[in-house]
Amino acid sequence: MARTRLYRNGVLEKENFPPADVSDFLPDPTATVWLDMCFPTEEDLATISEELGLHKLAVEDAVHEHQRPKVDRYDTHWFLTAYGVRLDPDTGTLAKSEVAAFITERALVTVRKDEHFDIDAVVERWDSAAELAKGGVGFLLHGLLDYIVDGHFEAVQALDEEIETLEDLVFAENVDHRELQRRSLRLRKSLVTLRRVVLPMREVVNSLMRRDHQITTDELVPYFQDVYDHVLRASEWTESLRDMITTLRETQLNLQGNRLNMIMKKVTSWAAIIAVPTAVTGFYGQNVPYPGFNQSWGFWLSVIIMIILSAGLYVLFRRRDWL
């Protein structure tokens, strides 16, 4: 189902009217129209495309999925592609929803490619900042971008908390290394996905907020600047988390190597201690006469030698932290 809104002089006048009526309001210089469509085909966009003069390539990009975040400029309009994201706190998996937008002088057409993009949240942002509605299409575009970028920022923050939890697990006494590696891999994949979504948004927002493009009014410039600052923070945070998860993985491998070295050191030390009585008993087991041969004191002498040498090795290894 399509959703529509009509603003006149910054005041919401109509909503949920038939999309066919959009063309009736476009000649009015005081009118601003919003049209939202979900799962449209090229045939669904044909009528509005003719009325708004949308470029064929932009229409194709709006219908086909897996576009990169971008903004393209055509003779009569701009075309925007961006992604909303959400993080599953239980699995650490990042899901993304693609949205496209046609930006004209008096109309904003949003095209959602799945139902997971919460357009109601965007509408709520418009309603909460109704005093800016005189900005026309720039006002609608700001609400859309603000919602998308805030979603990126929330996802980065949630991933940061997940990595902090992972850090605590790395240094825990009893570590499930398989589960730790699985969670690390999931977080790394989520960060890679988020990075592909967030980094191009710097260029997108920067292009749209340029005053020579006449998309934003002077009143809206500070608000677009705020969105751009959030984009930069999310981008930098994403990069730092990417380095952090790599460092965390290297730390885990180093700790595993250190623990293995400690185990090998202790096993080797105990083997050296056990080798002493083995050598003494082997010597006294020779079928030749030796000091104390066939005498009871010879037995006790061998026992004393084993105890003294083993105790001496134990003390030596403890002092060198080999045990």
From TrEMBL:
<feature type="transmembrane region" description="Helical">
    <location>
        <begin position="297"/>
        <end position="317"/>
    </location>
</feature>
<keyword id="KW-0406">Ion transport</keyword>
<protein>
    <recommendedName>
        <fullName>Magnesium transport protein CorA</fullName>
    </recommendedName>
</protein>
<dbReference type="Pfam" id="PF01544">
    <property type="entry name" value="CorA"/>
</dbReference>
<dbReference type="InterPro" id="IPR045863">
    <property type="entry name" value="CorA_TM1_TM2"/>
</dbReference>
<keyword id="KW-0472">Membrane</keyword>
<comment type="similarity">
    <text>Belongs to the CorA metal ion transporter (MIT) (TC 1.A.35) family.</text>
</comment>
<keyword id="KW-0813">Transport</keyword>
<keyword id="KW-0812">Transmembrane</keyword>
<keyword id="KW-1133">Transmembrane helix</keyword>
<dbReference type="InterPro" id="IPR045861">
    <property type="entry name" value="CorA_cytoplasmic_dom"/>
</dbReference>
<dbReference type="InterPro" id="IPR004488">
    <property type="entry name" value="Mg/Co-transport_prot_CorA"/>
</dbReference>
<feature type="transmembrane region" description="Helical">
    <location>
        <begin position="267"/>
        <end position="285"/>
    </location>
</feature>
<keyword id="KW-1003">Cell membrane</keyword>
<comment type="function">
    <text>Mediates influx of magnesium ions.</text>
</comment>
<dbReference type="InterPro" id="IPR002523">
    <property type="entry name" value="MgTranspt_CorA/ZnTranspt_ZntB"/>
</dbReference>
<keyword id="KW-0460">Magnesium</keyword>
